[in-house]
């Protein structure tokens, strides 16, 4: 798969799994994202980021739960040539419980994706987020 195909690939995988963007099942989304994260992408290095927090990026405070796959491009000489991030993001109105949550965790410090995913799934923030109702979801990809 090429980096240019990754956004559509994730959307297709979510569709085939029956994922609902307006009333998402966090665990179903996470399962599909883990499968997607394990798929090779030609000519790039990649890393995975899991993050949660409540922010006012749009001028309105929202809680954000974001599964990110970062693509690092290199030129013919193997030198850095840019980055893109694919975001599978969940947002909702803040609640007192969600306002307390803030964490981000990269895959780079883990020996495998399996180890990384297991670590994320043990976070108390993951447990709280997966039980919360009221999220909506989007998928987007952008240069960093």
Describe the overall structure.
This protein has one domain. Helices cover 31% and strands 35% of the residues. It is built from 5 helices and 5 strands, in the order ααβββαβααβ. β2 and β3 form a beta hairpin. α1 crosses α2. The radius of gyration is 15 Å and the shape is globular. The model has no long low-confidence stretch (mean pLDDT 96).
Poorly predicted parts:
none
Mean pLDDT: 96
- Helix/strand structural class: alpha+beta
Biggest sheet architecture: 5 strands, antiparallel
User: End-to-end distance, in Å?
Assistant: 20 Å
- What amount of the residues lies in strands? 25-35%
H-E order:
HHEEEHEHHE
**How many domains, in number, for the residues?**
1
Total helix count? 5
Secondary structure blueprint with pairings:
Layout (H helix, E strand, L loop, with lengths): L5 H11 L9 H12 L6 E12 L6 E13 L5 E13 L3 H4 L3 E4 L6 H9 L2 H8 L4 E8 L1
Helix pairs in contact: 1-2
Protein traits:
144 residues; alpha+beta; five-stranded antiparallel β-sheet; 5 helices; 31% helix; globular
Summarize it.
The chain is of the alpha+beta class and 144 residues long. Helices cover 31% and strands 35% of the residues. Strand 2 (62-74) and strand 3 form a beta hairpin.
């Amino acid at each position: 798969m090429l980096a240019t195909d990754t956004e559509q690939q994730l959307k297709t995988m979510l569709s085939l799994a029956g994922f609902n963007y307006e009333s998402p099942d966090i665990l179903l989304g996470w399962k599909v994202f883990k499968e997607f994260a394990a798929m090779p992408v030609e000519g790039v290095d990649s890393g995975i980021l899991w993050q949660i927090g409540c922010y006012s990026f749009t001028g309105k405070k929202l809680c954000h739960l974001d599964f990110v796959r970062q693509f690092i491009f290199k030129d013919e000489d193997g030198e850095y040539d840019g980055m893109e991030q694919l975001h599978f993001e969940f947002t909702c109105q803040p609640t007192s419980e969600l306002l307390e949550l803030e964490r981000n965790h990269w895959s780079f410090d883990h020996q495998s994706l399996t180890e990384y995913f297991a670590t994320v799934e043990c976070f108390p923030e993951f447990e709280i987020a997966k039980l919360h109702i009221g999220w909506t979801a989007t998928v987007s990809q952008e240069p960093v």
